Amino acid sequence: MGYEKPQIRSTTVIGVIRDGKAALGSDGQMTLGATVMKHSTRKIRLLYQGRFIAGFAGATADALTLLDRFESKLEAYSGKLDRAAVELAKDWRTDKYLRRLEAMLAIVSPEKALIISGTGDVIEPEDGIVAIGSGSMYALAAARSLMKHTSLSVEEIVRESLQTAADICIYTNDHIVIETL
């Protein structure tokens, strides 16, 4: 039998835009194989003079490398989110070093929400909700329902969506961190 690398499963990140406001939040759980390694990992960051919030799912070192590169792209393109995202995705897909990085990024501002992947995708969801990570589909379903049927604030929607994911997904906990713009 060969050695099988334990799969790192970590996190749920969700972002919502509503009424000119944005919130992005994540849980804090980091899991290695069948073991919870940490309960309070911080997976979101303010970027580019506090104009954007970025969250990550996947390997932490890989994601932090990508966040640094993304912030450099924002600076190089004067805070133009779409351009910076496309340039990062292009580099991520074509660079020999970067293309081995295993992570996804979710970015929000009051005007726009994006998901950036290592396959070269830059996705702007039509509903202003971004979700990545192990529990993302649970949080996404909750956020869509809350957006449709309540007048909750973006922060409340993110919190409730993450709590729903934590109640269902074994790779998501209720140590929630949220940033708002």
Briefly say what this structure is.
The chain has about 180 residues and is α+β, with helices and mostly antiparallel strands.
Total E-strand runs: 12
Q: What profile does the largest beta sheet have?
A: 5 strands, antiparallel
Cα(first) to Cα(last) distance is 51 Å
Radius of gyration: 16 Å
Strand content is 25-35%
Principal-axis shape equals globular
Instruction: Note poorly predicted spans.
Output: none
Across the major sheet, the strand order is 6-7-8-9-10
The CATH homologous superfamily: Aminohydrolase, N-terminal nucleophile (Ntn) domain
Q: Spell out the helices and strands N to C.
A: EEEEEEEHHEEEEHHE
CATH topology: Glutamine Phosphoribosylpyrophosphate, subunit 1, domain 1
CATH architecture call: 4-Layer Sandwich
GO cellular component, one term: HslUV protease complex
Function: Protease subunit of a proteasome-like degradation complex believed to be a general protein degrading machinery.
Protein name: ATP-dependent protease subunit HslV
GO biological process, one term: proteolysis involved in protein catabolic process
Textual characterization of the structure:
This protein has 4 helices and 12 strands. It has a 5-stranded antiparallel sheet with strand order 6-7-8-9-10. A 4-stranded antiparallel sheet has the order 11-2-3-12, with helices on one face. A 3-stranded antiparallel sheet has the order 1-4-5, with no helix packed on it. The radius of gyration is 16 Å and the shape is globular. The chain is 33% helix and 30% strand. A hairpin with a 2-residue loop joins strand 2 (12-18) and strand 3. The longest helix is centred in the middle third of the chain and has 17 residues, at 60-76. The protein has a single domain, classed as Glutamine Phosphoribosylpyrophosphate, subunit 1, domain 1, CATH 3.60.20. The protein has helices spanning 60-76, 81-94, 136-149, 154-168; strands at residues 8-9, 12-18, 21-26, 30-32, 35-38, 44-47, 52-58, 103-108, 113-116, 122-123, 129-133, 177-180. It is α+β, with helices and mostly antiparallel strands.
